[in-house]
Amino acid sequence: MLVLLLRAVVLGLPSTRATESCLRACPAACSCSNAERGCSVRCDRAGLLRVPAEFPCEAASIDLDRNGLRILGERAFGTLPSLHRLSLRHNNLSFITPGAFKGLSWLAELRLAHNGDLRYLHARTFAALGRLRHLDLAACRLFSNLGGNALGAVARAWFADLAELELLYLDRNSIAFVEEGAFQNLSGLLALHLNGNRLTVISWAAFQPGFFLGRLFLFRNPWRCDCHLEWLRDWMEGSGRVADVPCASPGSVAGLDLSQVAFERSSDGLCMDPAELNLTAPSAGPSLEPVATTVSRFSSLLSKLLAPRVQVEEAMNTTAGLANASLSYTLPSRGVGNSGCKDPFFFASCLLLSMARHVTFGLQRH
Questions:
Q1: Considering the entire predicted model, what is its pTM?
Q2: Burial status of residue 138 (CB atoms within 10 A of its CB: 0-12, 13-18, 19 or more)
Q3: Residue 72: which of 125, 23, 31 has the closest Cα?
């Protein structure tokens, strides 16, 4: 019995020491606890404007969500060899210094979502995170205003060192282009989220040579479903790992899903792009639109010529109270095309209307 008791005491010593160490080095604005997964540091909603200067060396998880952090400097978290999870969601991050994550060599999960001012990433931002498996960059507005240009690209160097990455969230940004080879080393990727961006095309070369076998999310992008996406349609049919790729253009396939687009072949077997719809092309039959346009133009001209005269005369009729004055000049009593065109001004108006009628009848016959 004594032996068992001593063994229990000995085995409990490391846990006690770890708990004491976790609590002793806990930042002032945070709460720390030691659980089965190691030392957990909770600094969420603490009103922090900068990263605390020190964390427990044994920290396995750090939560800094919903603070006011703006910049991550060099080695922002020091050296934390046991850290596996780091969350920085819903901050005001605008810049991450290359080397900010140095010292976190065992980090497996990094959450940076919902940092609306984070619009640019240096090519070496994640270079020190070779064991990273989960990277969340959703809703960061990446490239939404980079140098006055609303277009942005996923750089090839971003993920070059993340060979163990399994989940990658790049959704709800402003990405318009993916460089060739951007995902080429991510052979273990289980899911890639590119939905909610500005992509119109994505090439097979973006994934070569190690094309991943996971799920690909591409909805809510203005896809141009031409021959550049034929490979994607074929992969959709063969793998079943991607769906919902709505076409925004060309016009003949707009509104369809990419899986519904049938690519025609030329006589030499080359892919032919779906046609653009030309809504301004003339139709085969006769059109009355030119006639209507001509008539409306003449009517508009006559209205502009006659309006001032009629207004003046109506004012005269009202002031003078002469019942017959309106019969001499107003249009309704005589008709514009008859023998009542005595006044030189109205004679010119009648002549214009007569010309309009001749032109209209001529256009209708032809």
A1: 0.69
A2: buried
A3: 125
- 142 to 82, 167, 217: CA distances (angstroms): 30, 18, 18
Q: Residues 176, 152: contact at Cβ < 8 Å?
A: yes
Q: For 44-91, write each residue's pLDDT tens digit.
A: 999 999 999 999 999 999 999 999 999 999 999 999 999 999 999 999
Residue 149 vs residues 93, 145, 223: alpha-carbon distances, Å: 20, 6, 20
In a domain, 192, yes or no: no
What are the angstrom distances between the C-alpha of 269 and each of 204, 225, 228, 238, 276? 20, 19, 15, 21, 21
Q: Say how many domains are in the chain.
A: 1
Task: Name the H helices within the chain.
Answer: 2-24, 230-239, 289-320, 325-329, 344-365
CB 220 within 8 A of CB 244: no
Tokens of 95: 């810049």
Q: In sequence order, what are the residues at sequence separation of 6 or more whose Cβ sits closer than 8 angstroms to the Cβ of residue 109?
A: 84, 85, 86, 87, 132, 133, 134
Domain membership of residue 93 (yes or no) is no
Residues 198, 175: Cα–Cα separation, whole Å: 6
- Choose among 149, 69, 88, 135: nearest CA to 107: 135
CB 322 within 8 A of CB 328: no
φ and ψ at 142, to 5 degrees?
-55, 130
Q: Domain residues for 343?
A: 289-365
- Domain contains 342: yes
